[in-house]
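Project standup — Tuesday

K.O.: blocked on the structure for the chain from last sprint. Re-posting the sequence here as requested.
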Amino acid sequence: MRTRTALLFAIVFCIAASAANSEKVGDQDWTNYVRIAAYSLTNNNAEKIVNSAAAGHVFGIEVDNDITGRYESFLDPTEKLKAIQAVAAKAHRVGNHAFVYIAGTECITANAADVRHTLAKDHPDWLQRKVTGEPAIFGGGSAFWIKKGDEDVWISPFATEWRTLYMQRVRQIAATGIDGIYVDIPYWMTHFDGWEDSWASFDDYTVAAFKKETGLDSRRDLKLGDFADENFRKWVNFRIRALTDFVAEIDRNAKAINPRIKTIPEIYPGIEQEAARVGADVYQMYPVVDAIAHEYEFGGGDHMASSRTPLDWFKYQVGMYSFRAFAEGKATWMLNYSWDGDKHVDPRESMKNLAMSEIMAGANFWDARGHMMSGSNDLPTRSEILKWIKEHEKTFYSPRQPIDPIGIYFSPATRNYFAEEFLQSYRGVLILLLQKHWEFQVVTPRTLSEFRGRTLVLPDVRILDDDERKWMAQFAVTHTLVVTGHDATALGARANVVRFSDSPGKAYLAALEKDFAGASPETQREFLQALEQNATLKISASPWLATDIARVNGKPHVFFANFKGLRPKVNAVQSPETGATIKVQGRGRGFFLPFLGAVQQLVGEWDGVETTYKLPPIHKGGVAWVVSPEEN
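H.V.: unblocked you, prediction finished:
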């Protein structure tokens, strides 16, 4: 079992509620409440898997016997289908849910030199290729999951015969009664050494599909890697759409057999330019699947939670809140890694930091041993975390509704073509608001019409279509549009459009990267004043805490994550945040739920207009909320 790395943080103010393992919880389903662990599935270990999951408070069992990603079972899946059926039945008997791993566009043949039939030998025309014609064939050492002697190939989703057989396997898996199909890395091959700048694939099937759609020859009519080239932009869009259509077809085939089954792709690119390079864009995929498992990573390093700086944690937080906005209520699973042998860091503390960061952002926790999908760095700690999440799952996974947010616009097209400039500005603005402890909402082209905030920020957004411009023109009549850096609005001089020719978000991120401890949100005072924040819920805390505000079950909640004192590979125990307060209009009763702790009632000081609640020391994180005097 395999995977990569990454994640972030947060913490939440909130009301405790009990678990709900039913198929439907309001408008949500079981995917919103999973507490995941993974297991290798054989012909005779289904009962052992289900019993182990129950003992460890696991809800949402990943099992792996990979029918499509192993050439032998791709041709004959009979035995593996029986194992999937057995584990599904046993999970259902105890009220659990199980989902099965299948590879996306990758397939491995074991001991390739010693067998007559491999996928590459039998079907060389199926393989993805560089523009020079080199096929996507790899051996042991190309990735940690490829054993010595194995043949690893990457297949074009346009290879007709392969795709037909692949969808047949999907339907057979759906017929077993399994609750979900987990599709690992459905990518264009651009992530192995030597392939990063290939912008593959240029196999005959893919070239023909692109020419049919655009009239262009992708081998000759593109300036690969040149985002100023309109034809290359068409290639970028085509590749993203192709993989989105591929997972949508998986979903349709599975649901044709079992309408309740879930499709969950595993994707490692997040909000960064890698989404355009690999072609798997989570923003585009969320509408056509039931959930996404984010093996989120960016930048260099080993991506372990124990290796993150405080700024890394804030960047991961930005990623998770973006994913939650893309999901529009669907589940966001985080497959990330807490610890990989750092001698000076307690793995248990790293596990807790990772869990805290994810659940406080409303994402589902899935930590594994090393870079694998299965196992744990410390099973008792994982069990403790999962048990606590189960006890308070409604706090973390009930829908979070905006109260009076400042909108931050995520532009997928700008990210695709101007990734570096846009992301610096976008990240900087969001981290600024997280540290300032102001309510924010990530807004996308799909959610523009639903945004009800008074101010929307365009952080160096360079690409807007006619519908986006029309909406923004209407919005700016009665609300405030703040444009930083490049102005793509074409709105001209308008009273309610505030422009910054520079990029305050980019400047603030640069200051954080230079000296995280020395950077202050107040350095961007003019920009903050332009946002016209006038909240009825006010938070006082240090910039070491990331704060998210939302209404949960009708009550205002604040989500805190503490990163004070964390040092990569040296210290995973936070310095407690003391003296933090929340202030609300009117009177009420306040509560606080510390991470892995129990609910405490807060003492409020009433001044005739507002009530101020002083929070207890915040160690890793916690959840607070205020209710009316008569509520619990």
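K.O.: great, moving the ticket to review. The chain has three domains: 24-394, 406-530, 537-627. Residues 1-23 have pLDDT under 50 and may be disordered.
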